[in-house]
Amino acid sequence: MVATPIGNLEDISLRAVNTLALVDMIAAEDTRITARLLEHHRVHGNLKAVHKHNEQRSADWIVEMLAQGKSVALVTDAGTPAISDPGAMVVARVRASGFKVVPIPGPNAAITALSAAGIADSPFLFAGFLPPKSAARRKALAALGELPCTLVFYEAPHRIVECVEDIAGVLGAERKIVIARELTKLFEQTHHCALADAAAWLRADPDRQRGEFVLIVPDSASPRKAAAETDWERVLAVLLDELPLAHAVKLTCRLTGAKRKAAYERALQLAHRLKSRHS
Predict the structure, then answer these.
(1) Distances (CA, A) of 41 to 22, 38, 46, 112
(2) Mind listing the pLDDT tens digit for each residue in 161-208?
(3) Which helix (H) or strand (E) holds 176?
(4) CATH code of domain 14-96
């Protein structure tokens, strides 16, 4: 499994180039694209197409080659195979047949975009491509929006505007987004804005809707999450004025769904402040 450049043909490791030069066969998503990469690096290789429409059949001949003692490198058009690209089915079949699968790391669009997004100390979820239809996309976003992490998506140019509109509608227009397009290529662009402004920014220049996209939605900017935290703290503060601490915590958790440990610790802090004011 050989990772290849996502744009700039120089973004390939020496190990990857050497592997492509030495293997008996290169299984490529698009042989024309891979041929250009090989030509650029002066590598001569035997190419055979392996893509999403023939991956099952391709797994058969790859296993047959391995059984004959041959070596095969699998590449996709750009980036790391099997990450929102063909390859996973071949890997599963090869492993099930008892052969070794060796990953050769390299470019990945999601990680490349995250490295330039400026989002510190945040777990992230790579969700790949969202469903192409709006209703299904919104349903998927509703489930993902409840997760306490940065969300990372891929999107195609012909769906990018409607996609960011759905993200804003479901996750909240005040939330931030990073739009990264054409990474490592001549017209590479990374734009930070509120989700409310994302669609308008894309529409303002048709060129901004070109290329392959990585969309990053940071978790820390979610207003709904902050509002939820504020709501239970406000309820707790009111109840503490009228009820014993344990009773106030119990009712707060029941009414708002707050976590008991967090509510109890916050109640102790509030009770200490009240005691300090009266002393």
Answers:
(1) 13, 5, 15, 22
(2) 999 999 999 999 999 999 999 999 999 999 999 999 999 999 999 999
(3) strand 176-181
(4) 3.40.1010.10
Q: Where in the chain is the domain with CATH 3.30.950.10?
A: 109-219
Round to whole Å and give the CA distance between 65 and 72. 8
Average pLDDT over residues 213-229: 68
The Cα–Cα gap between 7 and 23 comes to 23
Q: For domain 109-219, which CATH number applies: 3.40.50.300, 3.30.950.10, 2.60.120.620, 3.30.1330.10?
A: 3.30.950.10
> In whole angstroms, what is the distance from residue 76 CA to residue 86 CA?
7
**Range(s) for CATH 3.40.1010.10 in the chain?**
14-96
* Token code pair at residue 69: 């003692």
User: What's the mean pLDDT when you consider all of the chain?
Assistant: 91
| pLDDT of the residue at 275 | 62
Helix (H, G, I), strand (E, B) or coil at 162: helix
DSSP 67-135: HTT--EEEE-SSBSTTSSSTTHHHHHHHHHTT-----B----HHHHHHHTTT--S--EEEEEEPPSSHH
Q: Is the pLDDT of residue 277 over 60?
A: no
Span 260-269, average pLDDT: 88
Structure-token match 């996609």, residue found: 163
User: Do strands 25-28 and 47-49 pair parallel, antiparallel, or not at all (unpaired)?
Assistant: parallel
Cα→Cα distances 152→90, 109, 191, Å? 25, 10, 15
Rounded distance, CA 45 to CA 19, Å?
Answer: 10
